[in-house]
Amino acid sequence: MDFLKTLVYNYIVLAFADELGDKIPASDRDFSPSQSVSDSFQKYYRNDKKTVVKKEIKAYKIRGEKNPDFRLGIIEGTLNTKSVIELAHKYNTTVTVFLVAMLILQIGREMPEMQKSRPVVISVPVNLRNYFDSGSSRNFFAVIKVPYNFRTGNGTIEDIIDTVRKSFDKQLERENITDIMNRYAALEHKFYMRIVPLPLKILSIKIANIISEKYVTAAFSNISIIKMPEKIRDYIHGFNIFFSTEKLQVCMCSFDDKMTISFTSPFQNTSIQQRFFRELAALGVDTVIASNNFGKNNFSTNTNQKQPKKEN
């Protein structure tokens, strides 16, 4: 995101130099080059405490016919940021917890009854810069896994929100976040990992990724608020983010009064995405839909709200 913001900033400064004149704003990047390239995992790693890895339960897996040529189907909703915040507050929770719960609810409505013995598990990346002082542009995040079991829960949005909120609160405690961060950094400090040839390391990472995917249903990434220098904001319509994925992936970010929630999926079926945006529309949030037209379903929120559009 830092890289993208830098590109956008420099493009606007060059393209609209005549209009900006001597009012060119300073970049909001206020970290030194050495801070930007520093490895924060190395900086905050502690080996004085053994972390306990809990046994995980295999998660429900979304399956179905995939798009031709391994192409991704993209569906994006543009919403009013204030409306979503107000809706989350009606449920006495944060936007991230509310939207993760909404995603779980729609996945549950599409689950076969026989599969409900397995939990729906959403992986959520956590920006470690919110917990440790870091100006690094290198990766510095951890992932928490948020489960919900439709056999033990009653399946209402209120119950799902309560379960998700408790999971967030527990996993985001400072001690737990430190444990997660240490697990990420620990491998780099293992002697045998330093001498293993790079091809074997890459193979090991691929195998570990295949194993970890068994414990995740979908992923939800909140890139949060994107800020740009005040004088160039009027030149920017908005930001959106998409991830390449082999499962259902949701990314969200907000810029000014626009929030974008983007679904990427390898599957032709878009029922979960439809349910997600229709539910938000039914709760009073105007939604404009854009899609790359992959998938068998004719996507529409089908509400009396502002008519959504479908774009290439």
Notes on the structure:
There is one protein chain. This protein has 11 helices and 7 strands. It is of the alpha/beta class and 312 residues long. It has a single domain (2-291), classed as Chloramphenicol acetyltransferase-like domain (Chloramphenicol Acetyltransferase, 2-Layer Sandwich), CATH 3.30.559. Strands 3-2-4-5-6-1-7 form a 7-stranded mixed sheet. It is globular. The model is unreliable at 301-312 (pLDDT under 50).
The spatial strand order of the largest sheet comes to: 3-2-4-5-6-1-7
Secondary-structure content class? alpha/beta
Kindly report the CATH topology: Chloramphenicol Acetyltransferase
CATH class: Alpha Beta
Distance between the termini: 24 Å
| Unreliable parts | 301-312
**CATH homologous superfamily - what is it?**
Chloramphenicol acetyltransferase-like domain
Total strands: the figure is: 7
Strand and helix order: HHHHEHHEEHHHHEEEHE
Main attributes of the structure:
Chloramphenicol Acetyltransferase, alpha/beta, 312 residues, disordered C terminus, 7 strands, seven-stranded mixed β-sheet
Q: SSE layout and pairings?
A:
Blueprint (H helix, E strand, L loop, with lengths): L1 H14 L1 H4 L12 H4 L3 H5 L28 E8 H10 L4 H16 L9 E8 L13 E8 L8 H15 L2 H13 L4 H5 L2 H16 L4 E8 L22 E8 L2 E8 L5 H12 L4 E5 L21
Parallel strand pairs: 2-4, 4-5
Antiparallel strand pairs: 1-6, 1-7, 2-3, 5-6
Helix pairs in contact: 5-6, 6-7, 6-11
